[in-house]
Amino acid sequence: MSVSGADMKINNEDFSSLKTAILGVIGNRNAVELAAGYKAQGLSDKRFRWDLLWAVPNIVRQPIFDRMYKYAHDEHIDTALRRIVKEIS
Q: Each residue of 4-59: pLDDT tens digit?
């Protein structure tokens, strides 16, 4: 089962794990302000999303990747990241 519609291929468990991991990276900082800092540097929204993901400690990130890459690819993960950033902003 996927999260919300045909465009979201990441399953509910992995989406939730991904979101929790990203929230752990953001902590008590404001996601909108962090994203604005990226834009001010001329960096893309996609760069922001993926930098958040890569900031997740490997010990947390790798098991999520191991599960997701069995059935999804980077475009699917980016769709999930886009939704997570939208939800936390």
A: 444 679 999 999 999 999 999 999 999 999 999 999 999 999 999 999 999 999 99
Asked whether residue 16 is domain-assigned, the answer is yes
Which one-letter amino acid corresponds to residue 75?
Answer: E
Confidence of residue 1 (pLDDT cuts 50, 70, 90): very low
Q: How many domains does the chain have?
A: 1
Its pTM surpasses 0.85: yes
Neighbours of 18 (CB within 10 A): 24
**Under 8 Å CB-to-CB from 15, ≥6 apart: which residues?**
3, 8, 80, 83, 84
Would 81 be classed as within a structural domain? yes
